[in-house]
Amino acid sequence: MSTMAASRIELKIPGRPEFISVARLAVAAVAARMGFDYDDIEDLKVATGEALTNAIQDAQTRGREGGEDILVMCSVEAQALVIEVCDQGSGFDPERRRCALEQEELPEGGLGLLLIEALCDEVRFETKPGSGTLVRMTKHLVRF
Amino acid sequence: MGNPVGMELSSRRLGATTAVLTIGGEVDLYTTPQVKEEIVGLIDAGVRRLVVDLSAAEYLDSTALGTLVGALKRLREHDGELRLANPAPRIRKLLEITRLLKVFEVRDSVAQALEGWHEQGATA
């Protein structure tokens, strides 16, 4: 969409559960403005919510809920929306989490990673133990 | 900050061991604890057959799905059952991605979910 070409929208939210919906709504508004359809907008809302949930649950585990801000960045590209969720948490090993999930017959946790990877066209995790996490999620406007 | 999500939660008992829990609106990390508390309360009060009515649920995140899995496990420990009623296509999609569509019994309505659970007063 020409009026939003190469735009970048940043939202810094307190790392508390009540702010997840605020970020979801912001991402949905950007995606709607770009022309994504209903299903894609819902996919982006879920993926963004899950990335934030991971970050906040990590902070909760360390007794740091609300103590660390989380940055949500939306980059509007010509044919894609790139959403980055960046925290200052303890980091994690996505492969190890995937393996743990595979081994559970009835998993109560770890489902967010599955959702993020299924609902976005490209996903990249930049994380390692102790250095925070950047989740980079891309959704294309036109399917290739 | 008040409740920005908008979740509605209610339950009704249909006999001594059967209940319908209705979840509406958006359930995420912020509101999931209320759902968990309600389910634990129902199980503690003797409910062993639970229908979760998702007709009015607009959004469930992974923590909400995890809570439903937890409820299923707890009910099975008591030889109980949990069924989901009428999830919207969006929520069915999430159940499919997380492979939970094979785990839960999913029915098209509360009445269908209650079928076979004969208990005095247990009708939709």
Q: In terms of topology, how is this protein built?
A:
The complex is a heterodimer of chains A (144) and B (124).
Chain A: E1 8-14, H1 20-34, H2 38-61, E2 69-77, E3 80-87, H3 94-103, H4 111-119, E4 122-127, E5 133-140
Antiparallel strand pairs in A: 1-2, 2-3, 3-5, 4-5
Helix pairs in contact in A: 1-2, 2-4
Chain B: E1 7-13, E2 18-27, H1 32-44, E3 49-53, E4 57-60, H2 62-77, E5 81-85, H3 89-97, E6 105-107, H4 110-114
Parallel strand pairs in B: 2-3, 2-4, 3-5, 5-6
Antiparallel strand pairs in B: 1-2
Helix pairs in contact in B: 1-2
Which key terms come to mind for this protein?
heterodimer; A: 144 residues; alpha+beta; 5 strands; 26% strand; globular; B: 124 residues; alpha/beta; six-stranded mixed sheet; 4 helices; 6 strands
Account of the protein in words:
The complex is a heterodimer of chains A (144) and B (124). By secondary structure, chain A is α+β, with helices and mostly antiparallel strands. Helix content of chain A is 40%, strand content 26%. A five-stranded antiparallel beta sheet of chain A has the order 1-2-3-5-4, covered by helices on one side. Chain B has 124 residues and is an alpha/beta fold. Chain B contains four helices and six strands; from the N terminus they run ββαββαβαβα. Chain B has helices spanning 32-44, 62-77, 89-97, 110-114; strands at 7-13, 18-27, 49-53, 57-60, 81-85, 105-107. In chain B, β5 (81-85), α3 and β6 form a beta-alpha-beta unit. The model of chain B has no long low-confidence stretch (mean pLDDT 92).
